[in-house]
Amino acid sequence: MIDAYRRAEALHVSQEAKLVHRSAVTPVWEEDSFWYLVGTSEGPRQVRIFPERKERVEGPATPPAAEPALPPELTGAQTSPDGRFTVTCEAGDLLVNGAPLTHDGEPGHAYGLPSDQNRLPIVATQQGMTTPPLLAWAPDGRRFITHRVDQRHVPTLTITQSCPPGGGRPLAHTMHYEMPGDPLPTFTHAIFDAETGERVDVAVEPLAFTHDAPLNLGRIWWEDDDTLWMLYGTRGHRGAVLYRVDARTGRAEIVQEEHAETVMYTAPTIVEPPLVRTRGDEVLWYSDRSGWGHLYLYRGGELGNAVTAGEWLVRELLQVDWTARQVLFLSGGHGSNPYDRRLCRADLDGGGVTVLTPEDGDHHVHVSSDGRWLVDTYATPGTPSVTVLRDTTGAVVMELERADLTLLEKAGWRAPERFTAKAADGVTDLHGLLFLPGDFDPGRRYPILDSIYNGPQIARQLRTTLRGYTLDPWLLDPAGGAPSLAALGMAVVVLDGRGTPYRGKAFQDVSYGDPAVSAGLEDHVAAITQLAAERPYLDLERVGVIGHSGGGAATARAMLTHPGFFRVGVASAGDYEHDGYYAIWGETYQGPPPQDYAAGSMLPHASRLAGKLLIIFGEMDDNCHPGLSLRLVNALVEADADFEMLMVPNAAHGYLHAEAHVLRRQWDFLTRHLIGAEPPAGYRIDPTFGAAA
């Protein structure tokens, strides 16, 4: 097994920059050209493109003329676009260029900061981050809008740090943590003039904090120096309300609102920026009222027309040209796989939709600042990505990059295979990825490992960017490490069952009232059974499951509710009991109060555990707090069940300093109980994951 461990370590996601070259392009637009950096086997290279001349100039990456500015997460500051004003938070108050701007802030009632639950203060502290104030600058670069959160009435959660650095007594950390049915934090907004200190309060009653603060998710934007907009999701996310605010007086009016029986989405998921745009009396509005997420144009509060329609959905807005009356966007569902994005153009006034990218695959697109050029990177799981420059008609002007996967393949990587299977209902198509070891031999029999997430807000198999973090399961899979796990000698399945996003409202709403997405687990069983029937090299007698966070909860539920199918499980940092987890989770996917948020608890199933289960969690997890894991542990102890547990001191929702140890323990557990081999004695994963190599 030692060679398998070495291959698995070589395919850890931390190695992607060394193994994958010319795959990612982020253009920086200038007057008549743009440039970007690409990784190569010789190091980073800088490429400049002159679109009009179709000219490409490549050379060594040049160091910046000045030290790059640190991100706000490290400085704890937000600086105005012109650099004149720097806003920080201190003891609940705002400061501008070091001088106090407000004087009545206090713990639990602070300016600029999100709620504790949204902020994750323990994680921020451990990663050396200082939370910057949440604000949006007006076009004049002088005024900004920010909020003030009141969580003084919210119950608290205490987390113990048993082994603080330097030793000494254990420490208690307390934060506000609202659970389903609890009173929620509220927030108000105010507009400040950074130069004069003048303040204008926004005349909207205190609103309940339902997920991210509007400022944290792009739900507040300025139209001009005197007008701004705020999009608010009501408690339980069953309604969306759009306010227009006069920045001079603070007067606010409701311009648009919509409500739903389940979740009222203003983007494909609640964790993405809204697909809503405004100009004057016109509102481009996103809704899945038709059963699919589409765009609608309103004028003066009245519906003008549908901009898009059909059994597919709008995934991302790239550009709205109000003068040309057109919108550029990425769709999901125009290709052979519903999770792939295509570039499309639509007429705002209802003239129809044109698909601009004929290539079947997933397209990720950047639009130039003047709207004339498009940089499109497209790929499929089995082919290296290609980056091209297109004009606004979608025509290819020139090829820019073609990914080089030579070193990745030499390291033992094998491209995942897409598959389709039927859900447990026997009707609905499911899509997934199958990862096999690089030295795959069809004459052998391989145990199956389900790398699961199963949450209602994230799909496991698609390429996407979530809050600036790229998730690409087709390469080294940062969310689950599927290629690394496959290298150990397993067939790894990545699948999204019913109740997960990007497949339309009927598919998504299966999870409403069931935030654990039990139907999705039934789909995993059905799909894996079909895969094994079609592929004799898959061993249906050896099926395991592994997941983190929502995937950890899905893993434990799979082991307890399908004990004859899943034989081995590794459950990490799970939100096991939704009545004790974030209010935003249960209330969004089970419904606002009153509800029985303990319904669907897995604890009564503890006595059904028949397989091998490893439970891992950090003792300072301020997301899925340790009490959730220990509730499950307590139920298993009361049932006198056999299981293993690893609690990591000083670790929050990610394991950071202990990641190499936790990873090795997971590999050892799967090797011993699922593969049926002995782990290599004394093997240690490099805690830097080869960073110094």
Based on Cα principal axes, name the global outline. Answer: globular
Query: Helicity range of the residues?
Result: 10-25%
Tell me, rounded to a whole number, the average pLDDT.
94
The total beta strand count reads: 42
Keywords: Aminopeptidase, Hydrolase, Protease
Protein name: Dipeptidyl aminopeptidase/acylaminoacyl peptidase
Domain Peptidase S9 prolyl oligopeptidase catalytic: 484-674
Biased composition (Pro residues): 61-71
Describe the fold and architecture.
The chain is of the alpha+beta class. Among the domains are: 22-63; 76-205, no CATH class; 416-675, Rossmann fold (3-Layer(aba) Sandwich), CATH 3.40.50.1820. The strands form 10 sheets. An 8-stranded mixed sheet has the order 33-34-38-35-39-40-41-42, sandwiched between helices. Strands 9, 10, 11, 14, 15 and 16 form a 6-stranded antiparallel sheet that branches. The radius of gyration is 25 Å and the shape is globular. The mean pLDDT is 94. Keywords: Aminopeptidase, Hydrolase, Protease. This is Dipeptidyl aminopeptidase/acylaminoacyl peptidase. It comes from Streptosporangium brasiliense. Residues 61-71 have a biased composition (Pro residues).
